[in-house]
Structure formats: C-alpha cells, structure tokens
Amino acid sequence: MDQPPTELIGIYHADGGVMGELRYVLGKARGSAHCALCDITHGSLRRKSAWDSACAAFAIPIRLVHLNERSNDEITACTIGTPTVLARWEDGTLTPVLGPADLEVDGSVAVFFDRLNAALTQL
After folding, report:
1. Is the four-CA dihedral 27, 29, 32, 33 of positive or negative sign?
2. pLDDT in tens, 99-114
3. Buried residues in 93-105 as b, exposed as e (16+ CB within 10 A)
4. 122-to-3, 61, 116, 119 alpha-carbon distances in Å
5. Angle ∠(59,61,67) on CA atoms, nearest 5
6. What is the reported pTM?
7. How far apart are CA 43 and CA 101, in angstroms?
8. d(CA 93, CA 91)
9. Cis link prior to 5 (omega < 30° from 0)?
10. 8 backbone dihedrals φ, ψ, rounded to 5°
11. In Å, how far are 32, 98, 112, 120, 122 from 115, measured between CA atoms?
C-alpha cells in the first residue's frame, strides 16, 4: 500500500467492562486466561507508561478494544484470531497486521513496536 493505515486497532482476547475485566483477572490468576496484548499494554494493575509513551511517539494512532467492544467490520476482519492488530485504510477496509503468535513478546513494548513496524513494511 502506498499510504500508511489511518488507524491501527489492537483487539484484546478478553471482554471489557467490570465483569469482563474481573473474569479475565480471575482467569489469569487461575492460569485459564491469557492475552498477549494485555501483557504488552498493562502491568499488574494499570496501563504501562512505556506503552503510552510509545503510542504517543508512533505515527499512526492505535486504538484498543475488547472483544465485546468490536464493530461488525472489526469482528469480520479478525480472521487470524485474537488478540490481534488490525490496520484500517483510507477506504475503510481492515487488514490483519499481527496475530496471536506475533504478540507473544513477553509483554515487551519495544519488541511489539519492532514487530509492528516490520509487519507494516510488508503490507
């Protein structure tokens, strides 16, 4: 593609809202829930400042949503599973950029952005 995406959408492998967050935290404690994107964006209690800083410096806006917050076109574009990162293009189309395996970076914000940049150059 000649132009960069207008937006990137990170989709967690968890529902949002109080109950969704509670289910995820309890599942993580039991070892039955895992979201690599959550590990990248959040520490034990809140969002990582390294994530916020990296996003502020990145040229393309990144929006984060939970499974139950996705639009219909975002649901349709999740063809490689979740968590995932989608690119939205000027014409509104969505393309998967990073899938679940790509996001397994031991929570490293730096490695995430390295992989994201590499994937975007391949599009």
Report:
1. positive
2. 999 999 999 999 999 9
3. ebebbbbbebbeb
4. 13, 19, 10, 5
5. 145
6. 0.90
7. 20
8. 6
9. no
10. -115, 140
11. 26, 8, 5, 9, 11
pLDDT at residue 77 above 80? Answer: yes
Q: 40 is written with which tokens?
A: 């990248």
Q: How many CA atoms lie within 13 A of 104 on its CB side?
A: 3
- Is residue 44 predicted with pLDDT exceeding 80? no
**Tokens coding 75:** 């649901």
Token representation of residue 112? 């995430």
